[in-house]
Amino acid sequence: MRILVTGGAGFIGSHLIDRLMEAGHEVLCLDNFYTGHKRNILRWLDHPYFELIRHDITEPIRLEVDQIYHLACPASPVHYQYNPVKTIKTNVIGTLNMLGLAKRVRARFLLASTSEIYGDPEVHPQAEEYRGNVNTIGIRSCYDEGKRVAETLAFDYHRQNDVDIRVARIFNTYGPRMLENDGRVVSNFVVQALQGNPLTIYGDGSQTRSFCYVADLVEGLIRLMAGDHVGPVNLGNPDEYTILELAKTIQTMVNPDAAVKFEPLPQDDPRRRRPDITRAKHWLGWQPTVSLKPGLEKTIQDFRQRLEHLPTPASA
Ligand code: NAD
Ligand code: UDP
Ligand code: UDP
């Protein structure tokens, strides 16, 4: 099969490409390298079944493919808030273009949506029926409202033009290849602990998240694409931790002497988040298999290797 992965040079996209290439598919990786990096897909660059296309999805593009995994969009608050108008364009115009492409070539289209569409949830854990509690005018809105529109577009192309869609609502995912300066909590804490800097806890650290290891997530995406259910389907790990617990865990694993420091909680930061994965279990036979510690071990090892190879100020 010819499969397009938008955002394929990014964190989740590159792990997905590894799986698709290993399964023998022909893969087109489309990316503008905003937060993605060539090193993530380096091993495939010379492979005859792999093609890299540097392109911004806010511009139309004509390609011939059988399936589209649509992941292009910065996912970390630091990056998606850097240029919020661009983030909206990517979610709205970019998703429109990819749906237009899917319609023209009759490709199955999977949207990487997010738990952020539930906003700061009043219902816990979050099931797919919950419609969310989202601020339309806050600093996170470019991303969460953008993804809500992306879901709406997908369902409208489905109803109006018969586009074969799948919608995944991805919860916090972590693992090797996250950027050192990604800004998300797992990468921040691991890098800080490895470098002997204090771990920065925003607020009092009592807010919760549920962390899914990237290999589990990719398995869920592949099953959703292969199955008959349109979705939306939550994909995430239901094990819930406070941010303080996460900091302590990483501290113990990397550097028990690392300090923690408390910083202000960003605006509209969700208080609690945990997926209800009943649908994913029933529809896809899917549930996470990697618990936090083994997943963190792999992540820490990857960061350790990369940080060792970064130029230090003295040698730069
Ligand atoms: P990432 O930032 O590593 O990857 C996003 C990729 O999209 C990057 O390679 C980036 O260069 C590319 N991109 C961004 N804007 C683009 C544009 N206009 N045109 C072409 N390429 C563009 O993030 P990720 O963690 O791999 O997330 C991938 C997808 O999964 C995103 O859509 C994100 O919203 C979704 N998601 C991720 C998480 C998570 O915890 N990682 C949670 C929920 C949803
Ligand atoms: N589009 C694209 N590649 C294609 C087909 C469409 O980028 O192969 C874009 C197209 O330029 C348009 C969007 O997708 O901006 C929506 O396409 P659709 O055909 O639904 O709408 P229309 O072109 O009729 O406005
Ligand atoms: N967070 C933190 N310290 C950091 C980065 C993030 O305490 O250095 C907190 C953040 O305020 C949020 C949680 O960790 O409550 C998860 O943040 P992240 O940006 O990883 O994901 P999201 O908020 O999008 O779920």
TrEMBL record:
<comment type="pathway">
    <text>Nucleotide-sugar biosynthesis; UDP-alpha-D-xylose biosynthesis; UDP-alpha-D-xylose from UDP-alpha-D-glucuronate: step 1/1.</text>
</comment>
<comment type="similarity">
    <text>Belongs to the NAD(P)-dependent epimerase/dehydratase family. UDP-glucuronic acid decarboxylase subfamily.</text>
</comment>
<protein>
    <recommendedName>
        <fullName>UDP-glucuronate decarboxylase</fullName>
        <ecNumber>4.1.1.35</ecNumber>
    </recommendedName>
</protein>
<keyword id="KW-0472">Membrane</keyword>
<dbReference type="GO" id="GO:0005737">
    <property type="term" value="C:cytoplasm"/>
</dbReference>
<keyword id="KW-0333">Golgi apparatus</keyword>
<keyword id="KW-0520">NAD</keyword>
<keyword id="KW-0456">Lyase</keyword>
<keyword id="KW-1133">Transmembrane helix</keyword>
<dbReference type="GO" id="GO:0048040">
    <property type="term" value="F:UDP-glucuronate decarboxylase activity"/>
</dbReference>
<keyword id="KW-0210">Decarboxylase</keyword>
<dbReference type="InterPro" id="IPR016040">
    <property type="entry name" value="NAD(P)-bd_dom"/>
</dbReference>
<dbReference type="InterPro" id="IPR044516">
    <property type="entry name" value="UXS-like"/>
</dbReference>
<dbReference type="Pfam" id="PF16363">
    <property type="entry name" value="GDP_Man_Dehyd"/>
</dbReference>
<keyword id="KW-0735">Signal-anchor</keyword>
<dbReference type="GO" id="GO:0042732">
    <property type="term" value="P:D-xylose metabolic process"/>
</dbReference>
<dbReference type="GO" id="GO:0070403">
    <property type="term" value="F:NAD+ binding"/>
</dbReference>
<dbReference type="GO" id="GO:0033320">
    <property type="term" value="P:UDP-D-xylose biosynthetic process"/>
</dbReference>
<keyword id="KW-0812">Transmembrane</keyword>
<keyword id="KW-0963">Cytoplasm</keyword>
<feature type="domain" description="NAD(P)-binding">
    <location>
        <begin position="4"/>
        <end position="299"/>
    </location>
</feature>
<dbReference type="InterPro" id="IPR036291">
    <property type="entry name" value="NAD(P)-bd_dom_sf"/>
</dbReference>
